[in-house]
Amino acid sequence: MPDERALVVGLGNPGPRYAGNRHNAGFLIVDLLAERLGGRFKAHKSRSDVLESRLAGVPVVLAKPRSYMNESGGPVVSLARFYKVPAERLVVLHDELDLPFGALRLKLGGGDGGHNGLRSITSAMGGGDYLRIRFGIGRPPGRQDPADFVLRDFAATERKDLGYHLDRAADAVEALLRDGLEAAQNEFND
Question: Whole-prediction pTM value?
Fold first, then answer.
């Protein structure tokens, strides 16, 4: 399986207005992976930006859909079809309200937990049997609306440690590709 291509998709919203938002954690992780590879994203006909390379010895396509989060499914399915990547080789990186800031959880399948990006992908893929790396952003303070919270930038106190947590998430992607789900879960699941 190591020579079978993987598709690693970071979820987020396009454009500078959203760049530092909590909802863009997936974009931040794939940007870091691209930086580690010394590569640049290029526009793809799937309405995504992609980078083809090898990561942890595995052929990989890193991708950032150019659609809004809630419409991620179309670009992800287009990429999976174009690159002939089966669902079990799709890795989706996304923000997670139900985990404390910086916590990671790797898993295969499951529901969308109210995450509209996952809902869109699961619907477009015809099922949820793909890999996910959930990046904890914590719950909103007080009575703040979760929809408002995810579209806010990380707080100053969070930004102090954000680099460390993103690095760890990028390491988790590499471990998942290199060692498989169970080994990566044992190492990175908080």
Answer: 0.96
Instruction: Based on the residue annotation, tell me whether 23 is a catalytic residue of this protein.
Output: yes
For the chain, helix, strand, coil in percent to 5 are 45, 25, 35
Confidence of residue 2 (pLDDT cuts 50, 70, 90): low
Q: Report the pLDDT value the prediction gives residue 1, as an integer from 0 to 100.
A: 46
The structural domains of the chain, with segments of one domain joined by +, span 6-188
Sequential DSSP letters for 105-134: EEEES---TT-HHHHHHHHHHTS--SEEEE
Catalytic option among 23, 44, 94, 115: 23
Band (60; pLDDT cuts 50, 70, 90): very high
The CATH fold of domain 6-188: Rossmann fold (3.40.50)
CB 140 within 8 A of CB 148: yes
CB of 90 closer than 8 Å to CB of 9: yes
Beta carbons of 35 and 52 less than 8 angstroms apart: no
